[in-house]
Amino acid sequence: MSSCPSCAALVVEGTRFCSACGTSLAGLFFALTEERGAGDRAWEPAKDGEHGRFTPGELLAHRYRIVELVGRGGMGEVYHADDLTLEQPVALKFLPKEFSRDEERIKRFRREVRIARQIAHPNVCRVYDIGEVSGLHFLTMEYIDGEDLGSLLRRIGCLPQDKAIDIARQLASGLAAALDKGVLHRDLKPANIMVDGRGEARITDFGLAVGVDNIEEADIRSGTPAYMAPEQSAGQEVTEQSDLYVLGLVLYEIFAGKRAFEAKTMAELHRLQKESRPKKLSSLVDGIQPAVERGVHVCLESDPANRPPSAAAVRAALSGGDPLAAAIAAGEHLLRSSSLSQESSGRYRLARHGLPWPSWSSPCPHLLDGKQVDAECDCPAPQIARAARRRCPEDSRGARVADTAARCDLRFQA
Asked: Which is the catalytic residue, given 40, 82, 166, 187?
């Protein structure tokens, strides 16, 4: 027996609709042994000497000379080619032949180009244009000489911690650039992240990306089941925090070399996400920094309201980030969050938002009764405020951090 993702009522395997609430159970019971994205087939890098529809040396559209097949998946084939007009390498992504007359697929393909072109960031793969040859639609994008993160992790396991932190910060930066443009990726996963020979990571494949305000109800569950936030797999509202949850899944895998949740069916995965927490990274990775561990685990909170306010806050929470920016981002989120209530008395643990600050045993006593913060007190509040004023004396950010410190109970745990 499994449970309905909407009302939690028990349902029999193979049932199409929940008898209690009527929710469609399509896809609830399929196996998760393989990643699935927008198409029917997982991404597979090309083997040595393998070629697809086009052969090396073939000229397309009087402009692009095929170099090699990069790989193929449910959304088509990708080739490395030389742009003879601009004299630079490019990647060509072709829709599968069976979709060449599918207006909905072509519409989505064009939408991918429009959305991806809005985002200009070193950690996001650049998309140039769209074209057609022999009735086949393709888009041109930046060619990245490297391998996808999924293949890399399968080949070497988890990354060394310093490299994992570096790539984690790059991914958070790239995702922040997309979210700042109001774009939800919705299919972030290791297979959609390319790492080049210099260790630079880029987020790719915006085929399922949508604007924050343009998500159709029937399209909410589109994506790869193993890399979905619990609210997305349940068919509920998808927000910026949904992408942050998936970012947490990817970061967990980078550090641990394994997925945060291991499940064989969608129902089992949904239950694990709702009822359990992933194993602490510190129990799997020797010497992982507490700030990094907090930054990853807070992304994996089942309640979206308890996740970081932004991808920028995640980046700042990781080692080497800007603690002042993290304090501002997390503190302002707490002050405007709908979860603030009289019952909670304004006492929140900013450590839940991955702040890379040291551990203190107790908060400033002045904060508990709403009195003015004592500037000579050794508690966190005045320390943060003083640091803020030193680092940006002419900037209003110093005052904002001081105000955050005065309003919040900065109670940290080691």
From this structure: 187
